[in-house]
Design a protein that fits this description.
Length: 254
Amino acid sequence: MLRPFRNKNLHFGFILLFAYFGYVTANHCNFNVKLKQVLKNQGFHRNISYGIVFNTDDDNCWLYKDCVVGLDQTLPHGVYANPDELSTLRRLKKLNAVPKTRINTEMPAEHSYPTTTYITERIKDCKVHVWLPVHARYHLATPGGGMARNTIGPPKLYLRCPDQRLDMCNKAATPVTFLCNGSSKEKCSWKELPYTLLTDTLVWNIPIGNMEHYHAISVGTALVIAIGSLYLIKAIHEHKLVTMPFNPYTSLHN
Ligand SMILES: *[C@@H]1O[C@H](CO)[C@@H](O)[C@H](O)[C@H]1NC(C)=O
Ligand SMILES: *[C@@H]1O[C@H](CO)[C@@H](O)[C@H](O)[C@H]1NC(C)=O
């Protein structure tokens, strides 16, 4: 009598367990992340702004409490983030962003490589808003000048929560280890999340110096110097001619 009853109990337990996993994977692992990436301001100094929303349904926001988003943004060789500026922003607690790769701020675009910056921010009410100050590198002048097209791709999005809350979600994704944030050397385990990009890929056209203007300026400068020099030589020569007969030394030597 006891045995079938036990089995039934066990079955019921399994059903509950499956239902629970089903519930968690069906409802909570569907992160449904949406990201907007916008390039603000004009000129050589701009601001990439990121708006990220987790789910659309506010009931699930408890799931992300104290979780942190990490963006991994690669910038093309014509654009850079200034490490000193990022360090100041971290100190002022305005923005937690840190270069992943070495960034040389002096190099022209032609001698630079793409660089990557991490940006981290805590999720609040299912939302995250971060930004990144970016600058255009100057381009070496070319014949005709024109514009250099810089395409800023979408960032990689990572998530990290303080406990094992989301471990059963996104199981296929292998955790990646990198800095917890820009303020400490400590490393954390992150999981990459897929998302829907709601905006177009950012394109920043940066003006290039025109070499023909350069040539015009150089030729002009050379002409002025040449004419000036000739005039000076002529003046010295005339002076010599004038002074020679009266100079006792030159007369003696001749
Ligand atoms: C960049 O834009 C954000 C808003 O999206 C703003 O909070 C921040 O102050 C801006 N930074 C600069 C340097 O303009
Ligand atoms: C950065 O991460 C460390 C390690 O997890 C943590 O102790 C510190 O509070 C974090 N700092 C900020 C500004 O988030």
